[in-house]
Design goal:
CATH class of the largest domain: Alpha Beta
Low-confidence stretches: 24-32
Largest sheet: 5 strands, mixed
CATH architecture of the largest domain: 3-Layer(aba) Sandwich
CATH topology of the largest domain: D-Maltodextrin-Binding Protein, domain 2
Mean pLDDT: 90
Shape: elongated
CATH superfamily of the largest domain: Periplasmic binding protein-like II
Order of helices and strands: HEHEHEHEEEHHEHEHEEHHH
């Protein structure tokens, strides 16, 4: 074999190897694991985890959920520029996300509704029966941080609406940074009562009791919105998961855990409450 033939052979070998290498890279990219980063406010952690598992089983897509205070999660997304879906516990945090150019306004969907109620230790040892009782001497109250936790902001609004905030505020012994921590306070017997979403009782029915607030005292119904993040690298896949969150199958899971899937369901417990329109 002459020198020219050897050179030609080597060139062909290099080109073939390079093409095989590039083909391998393309194949690996084409068959890469599909992953979505979803930032959930902790108001619906239990049903959302079940929904995530079902979606993964149906599609083969891996969901990486992060739960926490809605404000804290929004700050994290803005700093890291990471995330495919943002689902805070109330519309005000979604409005902030849109204003801060984190989510697409046109993609917002409502996935569940909530109402505030009083959650107490099992057996209600302090005999708390009303919002007024939270102002009694010696009663220890826990709330979510109203600056970063949706249920904390709703609790303060609820007490102000009923002209009780100034009376109850001295009894607030702790503010926590997520819905899950609010729900755990009476379980741990850290406080006598919290103002939380009605579903907190269903999270811990063996450790807590619920004190229903008179319907006419509830000024507004909360809802959980979800939207596609502008940081997503796969908007089509993010849309697929967002659509699944409002599917009949997902709504059935929310109902199983006593979340309200429709306005009409929520209105049965707070018929005069308003549902503030979403303003992005």
């Amino acid at each position: 074999m002459g020198l020219k033939q050897i050179s030609a052979f080597l060139i062909i070998l290099v080109i073939t190897s390079y093409m095989s290498f590039q083909g391998g890279i393309y194949y690996a990219w084409l068959h890469r694991p599909r992953v979505l980063r979803v930032f959930f406010g902790a108001a619906a952690e239990v049903p959302e985890l079940e929904i995530v598992k079902l979606f993964e089983a149906k599609t083969g897509v891996r969901i990486e959920p992060t739960f926490g205070g809605s404000g804290t999660l929004l700050t994290s997304m803005k700093v890291t520029k990471v995330g495919d879906i943002y689902a805070p516990g109330s519309p005000d945090f979604m409005a902030s996300a849109i204003k801060d150019n984190v989510t697409y306004a046109e993609s917002v969907k409502i996935i569940a509704y909530l109402i505030p109620e009083i959650i107490v230790q099992k057996g209600n040892p302090k005999n708390i029966t009303s919002l007024e009782d939270l102002a009694k001497p010696g009663i220890k109250v826990g709330l979510g941080d109203p600056e970063s936790v949706c249920v904390g902001a709703y609790a303060v609004d609820l007490l102000k609406f009923n002209r009780l905030w100034e009376a109850v505020k001295p009894n607030v012994v702790v503010y926590v940074d997520s819905c899950s921590k609010v729900a755990s306070l009476p379980v741990l017997k850290s406080v006598d009562a919290v103002i939380g979403w009605h579903v907190f009782y269903n999270w811990n029915p063996n450790s807590t009791d619920i004190v229903w607030i008179k319907p006419e005292l509830i000024p507004k119904i909360a809802y959980i919105p979800a939207a596609i993040s502008k940081y997503t690298e796969d908007r089509e896949l993010a849309q697929q998961f967002l659509d699944y969150l409002v599917s009949d199958e997902a709504q059935a899971i929310f109902r199983k855990y006593n979340y309200f899937a429709t306005v009409e369901e929520a209105k049965q417990y707070a018929p005069n409450a308003v549902i503030e329109p979403f303003e992005g």
